[in-house]
Amino acid sequence: MALVIIWLNGAFGSGKTTCAFELQRRLPNAFVYDPEDLGEFLNLHFPKSLQENDFQDYPFWRQFNYAMLRQIAKEFDGIIIVPMTVTNRRYYDELIGRLIAEGITVKHYILSASAKTLKQRLNKRLEFGQTWGKRHIDSCIEAFENVITGRVIMTDQMTIDAIIEVIAEESSISLIPDKRFPVKKWIDRRKITLNHIRKG
């Protein structure tokens, strides 16, 4: 069985995906599972008339991701890292809550930041105008303040390295040293960011 599932929640631009892959680099046996991949698949393969505005609204998206994570957790002897924004309480219960009910250890972290910081970060990753992420900043902040519970990490003034160190310490896991040069580290993180920009 997996040692733990580390679920990284938070608004778009909070650093979930970058932190997920940096954690994977610094752990000896870790796997990043991205539920968004299924969402993109569903939007590509449903007729326009049947598509949901938000792929999380597909019941199949929630059912499949729960089933996949449950299966991986039961067979994978390592750490599973899930970078995924979930702000709907019912969807949280169907995913994270259901996994916990199955006896699977899930450490749920909310990477938080001010609306100003989130907008600045989205602009830095070339998301100009009213992108999906920017349109949902306020609703995400409201949900994490009033609906979704978890360990909140205020990231406004934190580096990625500092964030993952907090996550590792609170998850009782040890990180291996990062021997990359600063330029290589920046390039790696930039590639992750650009490869995981949500469309819409």
Please give the order of strands in the largest beta sheet.
2-3-1-4-5
CATH class: Alpha Beta
Output the CATH homologous superfamily: P-loop containing nucleotide triphosphate hydrolases
- Low-pLDDT parts are none
Structural class: alpha/beta
- What's the average pLDDT? 92
Beta-strand residue fraction:
5-15%
How far apart lie the N and C ends?
A: 36 Å
| Radius of gyration of CA atoms, rounded to a whole number | 16 Å
Order of helices and strands: EHEHHEHEHHHEHH
Q: Which helices and strands occur, and which strands form pairs?
A:
Layout: E1 4-10, H1 16-25, E2 30-32, H2 36-45, H3 59-75, E3 79-83, H4 89-101, E4 106-112, H5 115-124, H6 132-135, H7 137-146, E5 151-154, H8 160-170, H9 182-195
Helix pairs in contact: 1-8, 3-4
Characteristics:
Rossmann fold; 5-stranded parallel beta sheet; 200 residues; alpha/beta; single chain; 50% helix
Describe the structure.
Helix content is 50%, strand content 13%. It is of the alpha/beta class and 200 residues long. It has a single domain, classed as P-loop containing nucleotide triphosphate hydrolases (Rossmann fold, 3-Layer(aba) Sandwich). A five-stranded parallel beta sheet has the order 2-3-1-4-5, sandwiched between helices. Helix 1 crosses helix 8 (160-170) and helix 3 (59-75) packs parallel to helix 4. The longest helix has 17 residues, at 59-75. The protein is globular, with a radius of gyration of 16 Å. It starts with a strand and ends in a 5-residue tail after the last helix.
Task: Please give a quick description of this structure.
By secondary structure, this protein is α/β, with parallel strands linked by helices.
